[in-house]
Amino acid sequence: MDVVNQLVAQGQFTIIKQPLGFIKFLQWIFAIFAFSTCGSYSGMFKMKVECKNRSESDLGIEVEFEYPFRLHQVYFDAPTCKGGNTERLFLVGDYSSSAEFFVTIGVFSFLYSMAALSVYCFILEKYRENNKGPQIDFVVTAVFAFMWLVSSCAWAKGLSDVKTATDPKRVITLITACDERENRCQEVHDPKVSGLNTSVAFGFINLILWIGNLWFVFKETGWMAAVAGTYMPSQEKQPAPDSFAQGGGYGQQDPYAGSQGGYQPEYGQQGGYNEDGGYSQGYEQQPTSYSNQM
Fold this sequence. Notes:
Order of helices and strands: HHEEEEHHHHEHHHHHHH
Number of helices: 13
Shape: rod-shaped
Strand content: 5-15%
Helix content: 55-70%
Distance between the termini: 117 Å
Number of strands: 5
Largest sheet: 3 strands, antiparallel
Structural class: mainly alpha
Strand order of the largest sheet: 2-1-5
């Protein structure tokens, strides 16, 4: 318990509020819905055969089928309406490949989403180190997006075939006694396949989630910065004023400032009569020159 408490205390669960973690959480939830609605399905339909001789009729023929939909192994006994004998009939078709493929992708998506969420929450810094974690995550996410596309389409086609193979009106045509007009064959109960329809919907929802998650994982890979780096030469022209200042451009090409700076030292030199006898010496010579003029 101490180890668990430390992990929880050190966890960065705010990542779940961000698109990267939130979509991964949705993927985890909808993966459960997808494989559970398909993998746990079991259905049943019911028929009745009324023979000319009522004593030989069977008004409650029940046929049960379930995942993985190996219908060719599902059988039922139907009356032949001839001396009380029965015949054993099998359904047609084996749709286990598409169903099992769909469920397998759902289970592995569930496991990977759970593992990715754990990495986001507990070792996010190592995940982002050198961008290796996001790059691997992007590749795996792309693979799962493609697998969801293939498995959902395959299971949608497989489900359509399962509905056709378990349609009581179609199954009745397999019964020999129903070929005779004096016997009446009729469906009593159709199979409920709403759960299977939901599984297909969840499959395409997972496809949308995994494709949408590609963008947010891609932003973590650093590949976007590498692509943006191709435009750096056009952006390097902006620091030109700095290089101009470093080169002393303003210091060398500012003649006005130089003239001002030169003017002040010259004025100081003219006013620097202190070095040549001071300003007082100049003042004493003026009366002398004035007396000479007089």
